[in-house]
Backbone:
């Protein structure tokens, strides 16, 4: 997998600057759909389908990002024996995170995502508000 390039490449000679010199803020995607952590898994799947998104950013009642949920995660939850129509996103996510900062280098983010086998990572500000998503291409 390689990291998604969301901004146009510069025309100058150093357009292929290595990952160590670029930051997450340089290549992150817009935040996309955000939902509250008290939403049910079934409703979240419907929101995902309506938005044609592979993931949703999940926020708490204060608007702070608590994590990211993928279509694959929600499908696994829905198909499990423990699933009920009252299963909330906060129950699926568990602990907060992981997150990254827009000032994190791409080399660090790439390493962390590969180590944790993540396909997407929320980018948050110092307060915990969602700024965007760093996603790996397929």
Residues:
């Amino acid at each position: 997998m390689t990291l998604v390039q969301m901004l146009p490449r510069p025309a100058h000679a150093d357009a292929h600057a290595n990952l160590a010199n670029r930051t997450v803020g340089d290549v992150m995607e817009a935040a996309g759909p955000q939902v509250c952590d008290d939403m049910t898994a079934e409703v979240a799947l419907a929101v995902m389908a309506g938005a044609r998104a592979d993931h949703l950013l999940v926020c708490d009642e204060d608007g702070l990002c608590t994590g990211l949920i993928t279509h694959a995660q929600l499908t696994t939850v829905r198909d499990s024996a423990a699933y009920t129509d009252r299963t909330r996103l906060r129950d699926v996510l568990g602990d907060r995170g992981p997150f990254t900062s827009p000032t994190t280098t791409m080399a660090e983010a790439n390493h962390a995502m590969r180590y944790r086998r993540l396909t997407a990572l929320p980018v948050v500000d110092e307060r915990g508000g969602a700024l965007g998503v760093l996603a790996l291409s397929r």
Summary: The longest helix spans residues 41-51. Residues 109 and 128 are 17 Å apart (CA to CA). The chain is about 30% helix and 20% strand.
